[in-house]
Structures are given as structure tokens and as C-alpha cells.
Amino acid sequence: MTTANAPVLHPDLTPAQRDCLDALPLTGNHVVSGPPGSGKSLLTAHRAVHLALTGHPTLLLSRSNLLRQLLQGMLDGLSIPGAPVEAATVHSWIQRRFGHDAPRTEDGWFDWTALTHRAAATLGEKDSTTPHLVVDEGQDLSPGFYRLARIAAASVTVFADECQRLTETNSTLTEITDALGRSTGRVEIAGNHRNTREIASLAEHFRTGGPRPDLPFRSGPRPEVRHYSGEKDIADDIAARAGRLPRHRIGVIVNSLRTAAELMRRLERAGLADEPQLYSSAAGSGRYRDLDLARPGVVLVHRASAKGLDFDTVVIPDTETDAGTDPTAATLRMAYYVMITRARERLVLGWQGSGLPRQLAGLGGWVESR
């Protein structure tokens, strides 16, 4: 099985998702685009397992370590004997491939031009150890990374949504395709299987471009805009929601690790049925680095780490921190588009202070105000 399309190995996909996999040959470079909730992360795991069946080592890459943990959990559930595949961060793959002294630029990120020259020096040496690369949230990586991957990998498959470009090293779909080469295939996947119609409708208010996706049929409560008197009020509200919804995974997405730490301190004292979790990218290992994203309970994450995740309930408690930003700015709208679309069932947009943040004004019939 080297050039034919990959078989559908698992039945837990929608017809559109199966069609997406069927459209991807096992050779060549490909870019798959789709809106939040279309199942891109799930498809990256299926795609990686399919490619691993060719006998080449296969890596499922992400920029975020927290997303890597989620993807590894998906791979563990799809594992097939004899077809090893693992999830890794781009950072760890680069260090594995080029060493811990891989050249960097002044901003601390990798020097893609220098690494591409290194890879080009061994261009004729691709063998059975050259990996297939599957990339989730591919819009978060620069064109330079894709020019390197084009040379250093057996094939590259990228899943991306350019309306979710939050990093300083991002790419549009066109930039990714151009960097991977003229023969790169393009596939689109539609549908939103995550959000309710009410949550997806609110997210549309913040979307920055691209074709308007179809709204989900599934309905639920309207998102809330809630005024908080302080961090104690926020923690009390989160604890109460965890008590009312004991089976829910509640994601608290904040704009400051200081806020996350303070809420964590209060929630730890609240006697929750499930111990709250906090993710910090600064932690090298242990409790604040390795999370169980599958179990119920509260997870506190910074906005920068929320990409690719989903929760039954999402609370964004500190929207007042954006009050000084132009509410029409693309970066702000993308941030809210990403955060809002993490919610499966319920969504809370919280704020403190004396005046409603400008980006929450005019939401009208999309939300309930409390």
C-alpha cells in the first residue's frame, strides 16, 4: 500500500470526514482546510495512522505542547500494531532532527533558512527512516517551516484554518501551499460537529474572513455575558458550574497566567469533586505540564494554549483585559473566534469593571446578559 488512497480504518467519522481522508493519497504534500468543529484534529490522527501503515515513521506535529497531549491521546485510541506513530511538538522534532544546537534567529525561534540549507545538503539521502509529517493547526507555523518540511519529510499533510492565526509566526493557506510546492493538493472539509448553533452564531460575529460556514443544527443555551465583581466571584461561579455539571469538562481561558494561578488557588479550596488542573508552558514537567484533558472538571489555560482544544463549557472570565484594543482589529477578532469555538455546550464571556468592554457591545440577541 504505497500509492493508493488510505482505507477508512475506523468507522467513527462522518461521511464528509471519510470523504476527506479518501481524497488524500498516501504520497505527496497536501493542505486540508476547514472551520472550527469540522474535525480537523481527529482527522490528523486518522491520517497519521494511515501513513504509518506505509512503513515510514510518522509524526503528528503541533506547535503547542498541550495540543500535542490531546493528539497523543487520540493516537493511543487509534493505534494499530506494526504502525507506530507519535505526536510531537515542532520544537522537539527540530531538535531530534538537527540537534539541540539547531540555529536560531534573534527572536529565539528556529532559523528556517539555515535548517533548510542543512536539509538540502542531504537531499538525495531520503530512505525508510525519513518521516511522514502530519501537522495540526498548521496556520500557526511560518512558511519557512514548510519550505524545510518539503525537503526533510517523505510527505507533509497540513490541517489548517487561516481564520485562527494567533501566533506571530503564522501562515495563510496560500503561503503554506506555495512553500510545500506547486503540486501540493488542496482539500476542504465542511461541517461543525462541536458547537451548538447559538455558540457558532456568536463566533461568526468575530470571524475575519473566508466563506461563511454552515451553522450546526444542534441547539443549546445562549452564551452568557456576565459581570464579575472580582476574582472571588469568578471562582465561585466556576465552582458552582462544576457542581451543577459534574460530567462537564470546563475550560477557563484567561489572558494572564497570574489570573490563572489566582483562580487555581481559590478553586483548590472550593472542594470540587474533581481536582482542578492548570497548564503552564513554563513548567518543564509534572502537574502543570502534563494534564488529563479527557476527565471531567476545571482546566485553566492561557489563550495562547487553547488552540485545538475543546470543552463542554468554556468560561472566558477576563474580557476587560482587551478593553483598550480596537474591537475591529483582526488579531482580537481571531482570538475571540478561537476561544468561543472551543465550547461544545455552554459559553460565558465574563468581565470586571464599570463598563462593558467594547468588543462585547452590540452582541444583542446572541447572548444573555447577567
TrEMBL record:
Annotated segments matching region Disordered: 206-226
Coiled coil: none
Protein name: AAA family ATPase
InterPro entries: DNA_helicase_UvrD/REP, P-loop_NTPase
Upper taxonomic lineage: Bacteria, Bacillati, Actinomycetota, Actinomycetes, Kitasatosporales
